[in-house]
Design a protein that fits this description.
By secondary structure, the chain is of the alpha/beta class. Helices cover 45% and strands 14% of the residues. Residues 422-433 have a biased composition (Low complexity).
Amino acid sequence: MDALQMLENALEAPQQALAVLGLAVALAGLLYLLFDAIRYRSIPELNVPITEQEASEQLQGAELYTPTTQLPKDKIPCYDPSSMQFLGYAKAMSPAEVREVIAEAKEAAQVWRSSSFGQRRRLLKVLLKYIIAHQQEICRVSARDSGKTPLEAVLGEIVVTAEKLSWLIKEGEAALKPRQRGAGVMAFYKSARVEFIPVGVVGAIVPWNWPFHNIINPISAAVMAGNAIVVKVSEHSSWSIAYYGRIVEAALAAAGAPLGLVRFVTGYGDAGHALVTGGVDKVVFVGSTEVGKKVMAAAADRLTPVTLELGGKDAFVVCEDADLNQVVPIAIKAAFLNCGQNCASGERFIVQRKVYGKFCERVTEVAKSMRQGPTLGAGPMDAGAMCMPGSVQKVQRLIDDAVAKGATVLAGGKPGPANWHPQQQQQQQSQAAAAAPAAAAVAVAENGGAVPPPSPARLTRRSAAAAAAAAGGSSDGSSSSSVGQFYPPTVITGVTKEMDLYYEEAFGPVMTVIPFDTDDEAVAIANDCPFGLGSSVFSGSKRRARAIASRLEAGMSSINDFNATYMCQGLPFGGVKQSGFGRFAGVEGLRALCVPKGLPFGGVKQSGFGRFAGVEGLRALCVPKAVAEDAWPFMKTSIPPLWQHPVGPAAAPFAVALTTMFYGPSIGTKLAGLVGVLKAVTGVGMASSSGGSSKAKSKAC
């Protein structure tokens, strides 16, 4: 009997132990959730006001605007490039006003340089919390100011910004802590270290293609490094800075940062010149090679250190053993995301001859299916507008030159109604009809009371014919009274060195496909380019892809992916040749906003910049090339079906939910994101259109 009892006790013991263990795990989980909720609530909640113009999916009764070279000196006209609706004016600051802003930033820099890393992280956490909770508002404002689709806005404005903030929060302090170095043979009794001291005030001049990310990117790095920053935004995307500036101001106040730590400048070229020459301690410029050279020349007088991220004409190499089912959707993204208006867009698609024909056939089919039109309130769109005035004409010049010299256009190649969404055409007709009575009265007055002959309806601020011409259509109104700076996704083959398109950056929705036979030939074609920013190589053999990528003259290479190096914010971002120099992401970019004081030999102010001793000096003699590839053979990048063109109404909500799931600052927000992902995938709660209120979208996501 005693033996039986002992056996029963022995069997019960493991069960009791498992029960105790399970209870302990459950208790630990509850405590973690409680701690996570408390931590989340400890991050201040921002209350940022938003105007009706910023909150509305569609603007009713807005005037239409025609771009002109005769601009007022003291203000900047702002408009939606996908609808040409006039949004108002932004202030064009004078050089004297810019210098005043720099002086205020210098005062704030003296305070912030001694801030703790904890306070700096708090500021970034405040920003991240607001961004994740208000993705729709941020993306709507970006879409209205720059003409991109809501899906593109989530991918380019939110995802990479959230990744940047997350990396800085987790790894920024470690990158900037003092580093111990060897003291050498004779100075063996010394302790040597390098300290990373904030430079002071960073001056950043950023472009228009990603209005939100382009300001938060340098701001977050600068403040994490202990600096103040003055950001000069582009005159082609100045409307959005009103809302984005309020976000930053509220975050600064919530984190207890000094007034003037982050300041914005709006204006034309003279304002940018004043920023470069007005006393900042470091200049970061993102833009064209032509302007970048002028920035460097202007900075030379004060020996101000400069980081330049300039043009690109990235090579996208596809080997015969690559998986076209993976490659084609990624290639479409590489060429046509944001209408190709990305510094690291894929422009030259170098495809091995064995799969060249199939690749061309498949990308052409997708390009022809992509719908283009006003990006807000008109239903799901696959492509938006060209943001900068004159961009449509520039792209058309390159295409016309290539075709005249023997190239073949497989898709696109001419602005016009072929790719327009039906709702866009309805919207244009409605706008024209609504504008007709008032416009007719104006026309009568302009003609001295005479009734003009029948003509296309005149639009407020411009005629329908002028609207068509501005969008790249014919001036006689034959392009269905086009409104919007549209150029269709274009696939072109047969491009040779005699054509301008071969070497010149298109910065538009143009996919140039070039065949090759051997790997050596692919490398030669890729390197036969004045630019060297990013690159991509696709092959079924990782060893082969690595070998090709290692020979490409570029600052970054993605293996079996496109632009993966930028999603890895721990990697440096920048190029070689005419794509600029210096880095502004990763450890290298963060330290570039500091003075490496200690063992590296070099000075500051009029003593120069750069280092030529120690680790820093040795690395300065190299190109820090960023490379990203799949870590595991069973996981590879593919474009989710919901994001493949033509996209449906769930594309943008899926992107918002996925971003929330990965970057939500609490378990609760991550779970909410997961629920949104499941809803988008299953179609639960998805409307038939991308329109609707922000509140409704929030519920769906």
